[in-house]
Amino acid sequence: MNNGYVLEMKNVVKYYGDTPVLDGVSFRVFRGETKIIIGASGSGKSTILKLIMGLDKPDEGQIFVEGRDITKLKEADLTAVRQKIGMVFQESALFDSLTVRENVAYQLYELGVDETEIEPKVRQSLGFVGLEDAIDKMPSELSGGMKRRVALARALIGQPDIMLYDEPTAGLDPITSRRINELIIALRDIQGVTGVFVTHRLRDAFTLATEYATNGGPNATFHREGALLCIANTRFLLLRDGKIIFEGPDELLRRSDDPYIKKFLA
Amino acid sequence: MPLTLKAAVKEVQDISSLTARTFLGAFRRPLYARDILTQMDLIGVGSLAVIMLTGFFTGAVLTLQTSKTLATFGAIGFTGQLVAVSLVRELGPVLASLMVAGRVGSGIASELGSMLVTEQINAMRALGTDPIKKLVVPRVFATTTMLPVLTVVADAIGVMGGLFIAVFVLHISSNLYLSSAWDGLSYMDVLGGLLKPLVFGATLSIVGCYCGLRTYGGTQGVGRSTTQAVVASSILILVFNLILTRVILAYTQ
Asked: Domain for residue B5, yes or no?
């Protein structure tokens, strides 16, 4: 009963206290697609990611991850679902008592993977984000951008099918943000990872929606969509006060006549 | 005020649920043996200096105070007994626990609170770890097992502190002091003196974890949780001490 959708939310309602943060949210993400969720602060963007990860439960509605309703699962059963999902948290959320190596290897240790297999995987994952040299550093020794990249490497170590990005570029300079965006584009286009990307930075959102990668690894090259090729695997969701007010590709978003959307994009 | 009553009941329910999950978690795989050992080192060995100082000065001052009263009855020879019994029954367990509550309980609350507000706890869950097993069980286990040991150290050093005062200030012979201390203690005193820190250790560590894990409101919230952990666990230690003393005395003939 997969229907080709990897992620699906059906009429999800979530209250924090008496105020609804999500008010009947429904959307689907197909395999290999990247959904960009934009909206003002407090519009419920991050809550969607927490619900998909099962870190919080919705008050109403259903959430399907690869066809399985996770809203009824117990914490112990959620572990299996979470192994398919990687998440990059807003402020990196690295374990500050562990080294970069231990942070990235964390999931493998938890799964009881053999020590000899862990080291090469950690190096490969750190290599993807270009931080192999930082392997023995503590998180406190890293810059903000490096922390995000380690967080990305940590989320990727289990080779997840789905990646959730919670404002991965917030607070970073344009060059470092660009670097993170390129990694995310490469994951989407080269490795076919399904993604949900939450941001309030339109610039990053449009980078993701208009550029594509034709090579992975160190020789990755990025191109802008044009008259011949239009990226169809990245779509926008615009949230306003817990409701979806727009869903579709960047071209339609830009052409929208809705006054709120116009104001938001301005 | 039905609202505050509801909140209080919710609080009791939450902390009971955490206690139950901690207890059950300790018997289910995976067991984080390395984390347990690290915590035992941090909590047990790390508190040793504080505990020894507490024990020494408590024993010393107790000797000074009691000898004065005992001298008026011509019973200065019983100083050792009074000091030993007071230390083993009451002051050792309670003061050691209060010191550890201040040192370890606050540390647990602030560490877990910081991890919560920086989303490290969520990251841990996202990577497939139950924070109860990984963070709470090792801390509660380590505190519960280490506090009785620390109490024994505090008691012993306390008796030595008393001996120091007895010999050098009061000029009581060390033989008289020590034999009186030894004779005064019963097995029930020692047993009760070990049961108390076991209960207090579990209490202060669970309260510390609970306060840390319900932190809200960023860095400011971490400070609030830390204070709450120390205040709540200290009060609970004193309340449980009264209850336990009543129970232990009922079994002591």
From this structure: no
Distance of residue A86 Cα from the nearest chain B Cα, in angstroms: 8
Q: How many domains does chain B have?
A: 1
Cα separation of B197 and B107, whole Å? 18
Helix (H) or strand (E) segment spanning residue A42: none
| DSSP, res B134 | I
B103: in domain? yes
Chain B residues close to A111, C-beta within 8 Å: 128
pTM of the model: 0.88
Ordered per-residue pLDDT tens for chain A, 266 residues: 455 789 999 999 999 888 889 999 999 999 989 999 998 887 888 899 999 999 999 999 999 998 889 998 888 888 888 988 999 998 899 999 999 999 999 999 888 889 899 999 999 999 888 899 999 999 999 998 899 999 999 999 989 999 999 999 888 888 888 988 998 998 898 888 999 999 988 888 999 888 888 876 666 788 888 777 778 888 999 998 889 999 998 888 888 888 988 888 87
Residue (of B122, B126, B124, B117) closest to A163 by Cα position: B126
Contact A82 B124 (CB under 8 A): no
Closest CA to B60 of B151, B152, B158: B158
Residue B19 maps to a domain = no
Domain span holding position B112: 33-251
Residues of A in contact with B218 (CB under 8 A): none
- Which residue in chain A has the smallest CA separation from B112? A95
Q: Determine, yes or no, domain membership for B233.
A: yes
Query: What letter does residue A89 receive in the DSSP assignment?
Result: B
Considering only CA atoms, which of A230, A172, A245 is closest in space to residue A203? A172
ipTM confidence score = 0.88
A107 close contact with B: CB closer than 8 A: yes
